[in-house]
Write a structure and sequence with these properties.
Elements (H helix, E strand, L loop, with lengths): L2 H16 L77
Length: 95
């Protein structure tokens, strides 16, 4: 997926959120290869990230409330300042 394609998905998802579903499209990034992607500051609330490769992605200050992440690869992702899903604990791995 190109940076431009990802940016468009994030923008239309934001419109979907702001219009309460009347406009835009809910982000479906299920199975997407997003290794190293910069999503910092994005509101991904309610997005589908199941099976996505988000390893080494920049997810700083991302809103992840209600995000579907089953089997997503978040190894090495920067989650500092992210708003986690309910029930998540964002902890840093010990090296």
């Amino acid at each position: 997926m190109t940076h431009e394609e990802l940016d468009k998905i994030v923008r239309t998802h934001q419109l979907w959120l702001e219009s309460e579903g009347r406009e835009g499209v809910k982000a479906n990034l299920s199975g997407a290869y997003l290794r190293g992607a910069n999503l910092s500051g994005a509101n991904l609330s309610g997005a589908d990230l199941r099976y996505a490769d988000l390893s080494d992605a920049d997810l700083r200050c991302v809103n992840l409330i209600g995000v579907e992440v089953r089997e997503a690869d978040l190894r090495g992702a920067n989650l500092s300042g992210a708003v986690p899903m309910l029930g998540w604990k964002l902890v840093r791995e010990e090296k």
